[in-house]
Specification:
This protein is mainly β. It is about 0% helix and about 30% strand. The chain is elongated, with a radius of gyration of 16 Å.
Length: about 190
């Protein structure tokens, strides 16, 4: 259910067992003491902001089993390492302010609303490879200060405004599209 354990500041660990198929919106939002999260692969739906603000949590989760939702892991600084995603869309703030270091993503598009981009301020993110992407939304990688290499597949048609704003280490951007994508400002 929505907000099931939201704000449970004393909660330190959870294990979502086999048979559970969904986690509701904001279910564990702002559980700041939560340190260990194990999610069984039977989970195929995770709601908006489900783990937003679980700043100390170390995750054991396969993101390929479910499509990311808005702000699902926002502020989860200890969601680290390489992230492999297969989804139609990576919504705004889904992985913003996390500690991921590499991203391999097969998705049609990333989106943005006024809140920010899908990987906004992932300051540890150093390498990105986006295949099958058609559109990169505004502010998608804004503030990814360690990002030095971004490889974008041959299907990209649009890179929206400020998609790579403040990526001060970006030394190489490879776009494999035969027809250059439409570029917005910044």
């Amino acid at each position: 259910p929505e907000f099931a354990f939201s704000g449970c500041y004393s909660l330190q660990g959870i294990n979502i067992p086999e048979g559970v198929t969904s986690i509701g919106d904001s279910a564990f939002r702002d559980c700041g003491s939560l340190q260990s999260i194990a999610i069984h692969e039977s989970v195929t739906s995770v709601g908006n902001s489900a783990f937003r603000g679980c700043t100390n949590a170390v995750f054991s989760v396969n993101v390929n089993n479910f499509a990311p939702k808005d702000s699902v892991f926002m502020y989860c600084r200890r969601l680290t390492g390489t992230l492999n995603i297969i989804a139609d869309e990576i919504p705004h703030d889904a992985f913003a302010f996390t500690g991921i270091t590499s991203l391999f993503c097969k998705a049609n598009k990333t989106t943005r609303t006024t809140g920010g981009g899908a990987f906004y301020s992932c300051v540890e993110l150093a390498r990105v490879e986006l295949t099958d992407i058609k559109e990169i939304g505004s502010f998608t990688f804004n503030g990814c200060t360690a990002l030095s290499l971004a490889i974008i597949g041959d299907t990209v048609t649009k890179i929206d405004s400020s998609a790579f704003l403040n990526c001060i280490s970006l030394a190489r951007l490879v776009v494999k599209a035969a027809t250059p994508p439409t570029l917005a400002s910044n």
